[in-house]
Every structure is written in structure tokens, then in C-alpha cells.
Amino acid sequence: MSDRVVLAYSGGLDTSVAISWIAKETGSEVVAVAIDLGQGGEDMSAIRQRALDCGAVEAIVVDARDEFADEYCLPTIQANAMYMGQYPLVSAISRPLIVKHLVEAAKFHNATTVSHGCTGKGNDQVRFEVGIGALAPDLEVIAPVRDYAWTREKAIAFAEQNNLPINVTKKSPFSIDQNVWGRAVETGFLEDLWNAPTKDVYDYTADPTVNFEAPDEVIVTFDKGVPVAIDGKPVTVLQAIEEMNTRAGRQGVGRLDMVEDRLVGIKSREIYEAPGAIALITAHQALENVTVERELGRYKRQVEQRWAELAYDGLWYSPLKRALDAFVQDTQQKVTGDIRMVLHGGSAVVNGRRSEQSLYDFNLATYDEGDTFDQSLAKGFVQIHGLSSKVAARRDLS
């Protein structure tokens, strides 16, 4: 049997051409692996058939929607992970799952090499190759688009010369990546930072003004940090994301227009749509504010930033990431209760919280009758708390 290469297959131009190109250049058989992450669009069976028609000896389609929701999206919710304080890691958290299945396929098919269709300017090349190195250090990697300077024109010419069944008549001005957690759009006229996004950029969200007269109030129930019900109806994590994608998306929630710092050292303008992600993280943060002790919450917020950076930088399988996962999971033990939000005009605004694990004590918080807080203790507390600053000020101002 010939050597085999396992290819991360999207069904698009570059990875379809890569099947035939790898076979011709290396003499290896190509096994195409396509992952269903809830991205929608073309039927996965059609994608599988295209891979076979382009010369793959085997084409595998993996329905990983629940796995993605439970093992990748949920930890992101529990970590309140937002890269640069904004981006809920739409593409970043999907790559380690794809890597996992590539490595499994490589072991099953006795492949020595895996391949991806990433360019040399983006983050995904790092996420794929660092992830592969962490799970299967002995596997080799081929990246035709990056390593052989493919252009769209070269790929089309190769497809025509080799009679590959690829329809490339319609060219989108954008580069788009999407899954159930959200949608990422870049390139085209968006590369000019002064250009505002046009209506055709968006798909997961409606214009925030369209349903402005019809706000949507929703109650999200969590059990130990896991969303388990929407408006009292039990849901899986995947169903919670899908439901909030629909309802928050209808209200224009989750639109992001940002210039982010890529791992490779350049700044990139990105448009994101993540209605379900933003709504669920907003609700989860609000419940943590009620149920997580102050010092633990303060430290967790530092961990959240580092967690997001590790995921963004392709270090999902790193020792530090695993250690932070254990910390985040421990913080979720009391994060149980309900959050009420109003989805309206592009925002998800929390207006109600309840939990049997709440640390909010009405009798301590109230200024009215029934106040049990002993205010006489506050004077000494303030004096001691500020003592070191006061002593330093006497020295520095003298």
C-alpha cells in the first residue's frame, strides 16, 4: 500500500485541488477528513463525494456538533473567554477539534503525514501544526497553499488542467469561516479599515434596528456552569447555542468589528458574528458575579484572559492550558441558577438573577430596615486598609 496523507478537507477550492496535487507530487494516497461543526451551507454528503471525485481514496465525514459544543464551546463559556476582551474564539476553538480527528484518522489509516490548506499569514497554520505536534509528534505536515505559494489563479488553473470537478465561477470578495459558535469574515474591501461593513457581510445576525420594537426576554438556566435550560425547557449545550443563535441573532446581538493582534505579528481587521456565544457568555458572567467568591472571581478573571490567549495562539493541548482547565472547572461548582436577559438592539442586557448558591445577602446589602451590616466596624477597617499608603504619603510628601 502507498503512503497515505490525511487532509483536513473543507470542500472548497484549495483543499479540493490539494487532493490531486498531493497525490501527484508525493505519490501518496489521500484520505480526506471533513468535520461537521454546525457550519451549515453545503450538504456534507456532497462534500464527501467531491473529495472522492477529486481523487481521495477515502473521504470521512465526522458529525462533531455535540462534541464541539460540549468539549470546546462549553469550556469557552465557563472561562468567559474573549480574546482581546471581545472575540469569543469562533475559529480558534474549532481547530483543536479538527486536529484531534485528523490525528485519529492518521492512526487508523497508518498515515505518516497530515495536510491542511492554511496560508502563511494566518493563525490557523499554527493551531493545526502545534496541535498535531502535541497529539502526535511523529506526524509530518504538508501545507501546499503556504509552502508552495498557491494563489487562487494557480489553483483554478491546476483544477482545469486536471479536470477536477470544482465549480469556481462565483467568487466571494470575503474569506469566511463559520461553525455553530459563530462566523468570521475577512479580506476584500474590509482590509481598508475605514470601510464600513455592508449588509452582505452578515448572515448569522439581523440588522439591530429591524426588530427594535420587539425585544426578546429570555431566561437561561445553568447547572454548575453548564447551560441546561432556556425559558425552562431542557436543552443540550448544542441546543442552547443554536437557540441563542436564533434569538440573539434576530436582535442583532454578537456583531463584532475589530482589529486583532494575530499570533504571526500582524494586525488584521475581522468581522465576527457570534450571537449565541456572546449571549451565553454574558449570562454566565452574570451568574458567576452572584455565586463566585470575590477573591476567586478576581483571580479567575486573570485566568480567563490567559486561557483565551492560549486558545487563540494554538496551545489548546499545552500543559498550561490543561492546568487552567482544571482551575476553571473547579470554579464552576456553585455556578447554578437562572439569568434573565433582554435581547434588544444588538445587546444582551441582564436584568434578573436568582440562585440557591447566591452569595448576595439582602440583609447585608440593604440600606433599609433589616440591615444587619455593622457599620461601626467600617471605620477601623478603612483606617487599617489604607495604613500603608498613609505611611508612604507622610514620607513622600515631607
From TrEMBL:
It is found in: Cytoplasm. Its EC number is 6.3.4.5. Coiled coil: none annotated. L-citrulline binds at Y87, N123, R127, S175, E260, Y272. L-aspartate binds at T119, N123, D124. Keywords: Amino-acid biosynthesis, Arginine biosynthesis, ATP-binding, Cytoplasm, Ligase, Nucleotide-binding. Residues 174-391 form the Arginosuccinate synthase C-terminal domain. ATP binds at A8, Y9, S10, G11, G12, L13, D14, T15, S16, G117. Pathway: Amino-acid biosynthesis; L-arginine biosynthesis; L-arginine from L-ornithine and carbamoyl phosphate: step 2/3. InterPro entries: Arginosuc_syn_C, Arginosuc_syn_N, Arginosuc_synth, Arginosuc_synth_CS, Arginosuc_synth_type_1_subfam, AS_cat/multimer_dom_body, Rossmann-like_a/b/a_fold. Its main location: cytoplasm. CDD domains: ASS. Homotetramer. NCBIfam families: argG (TIGR00032), PRK00509.1 (NF001770). Belongs to the argininosuccinate synthase family. Type 1 subfamily. This is Argininosuccinate synthase. It comes from Nocardia mangyaensis. The lineage of its organism: Bacteria, Bacillati, Actinomycetota, Actinomycetes, Mycobacteriales. The gene is argG.
